[in-house]
Write a structure and sequence with these properties.
1 helix, six-stranded antiparallel sheet, nine-stranded antiparallel sheet
Length: about 290
């Protein structure tokens, strides 16, 4: 990979690709543990794509804005776009992209999107900043899609791991069928743990809305290594792995979600859509803690 940007402290070293401003490595400097999935193209060739200006699938691959339909890829278009490196100061990496001729063909708004990675001890904070450069309101979703190595240690398997929320949850999961959110079903009943199994993602991602928790940890009772994702303020959370035998799990903080099956509305009607007034900036962040 070319032009990888790196920062490190005494505990962690991270690497970020300017294409997509994608975090591609979080490695321990003490024992060499790699916490991020290393994007095997035969399984799933991403590490941690940035999702903007939509989350998930748009109905028929198109998004309606002010009465006009625009072709919209899965999870938006910035994951394959080249970002400019804005700053490189100790402990911080910043990347930025602005609207251009290509982006306005699929998303007519003028915007500035900044992604910032910062290191503090064993924590990586991922910050998103969206500025509306239009004379009118701008509508968008944004979210992360970090994929963590699972297992994190030799001699363990994915089935040895579980996800533990910081609060007990009684929650439904949305499920995907026929290219969109098809419904919801009971999933958590006053509990805080999801065991990972080979069949957990048979119906695609687990998608939750409005959880009481703002933190979840990937861990195993058989090992010492774990990863915690803190996602304060995010409205939705996705949990996903591609298929049986995959050696990663994604923990995805989102503002927004896939279109429902049959959705034909404008972007202003999408679930979880954010509205930003002219000249205003939206900020959010999540943190990855590596133990």
């Amino acid at each position: 990979m070319e032009n990888i940007r790196e920062i490190e402290n005494d505990i962690l070293k991270i690497r970020v690709k300017p294409v997509g401003a994608e975090l591609c490595s979080v490695r321990s400097r003490t024992d060499g543990t790699e916490y991020m999935w290393q994007a095997d193209p035969a399984v799933w060739g991403r590490h941690s794509p940035l999702l903007f200006p939509v989350i998930g699938r748009s109905r028929r691959g198109r998004c309606r804005i002010d009465g006009k339909e625009y072709k919209m890829p899965l999870h938006g278009f910035v994951m394959d776009a080249l970002f400019d490196t804005v700053t490189k100061i100790p402990g911080v990496l910043s990347f930025q992209i602005r609207d251009n001729e290509y982006t306005r063909e699929v998303y007519p708004y003028k915007f500035t999107l900044t992604v910032e990675y910062s290191l503090n001890g064993n924590c990586v904070t991922v910050g998103y900043r969206v500025r509306n450069e239009n004379r009118g309101d701008m509508y968008f979703s944004i979210g992360g899609h970090p994929a963590f190595a699972c297992p994190l240690e030799d001699k363990l398997e994915l089935k040895d791991y579980y996800l533990q929320f910081n609060k007990n949850e009684t929650a439904e999961r949305r499920y995907i069928e026929n290219g969109g959110i098809a419904g919801k079903e009971p999933f958590l009943d006053n509990e805080n743990t999801i065991r990972l199994t080979d069949r957990l993602f048979d119906r695609d991602a687990l998608i939750f809305k409005g959880l009481a928790s703002d933190s979840v940890t990937l861990k195993s009772d058989k090992g010492a290594k774990s990863v915690t994702v803190d996602f304060p303020g995010f409205t939705h959370l996705g949990i996903w792995s591609k298929d049986k035998g995959s050696r990663y799990v994604c923990i995805e903080p989102w503002f927004g979600v896939d279109d429902a099956v049959g959705f034909e509305g404008d972007i202003t009607e999408k679930e979880g859509i954010l509205a930003l007034s002219p000249g205003e900036t939206f900020n959010c962040e999540y943190t990855i803690t590596c133990n």
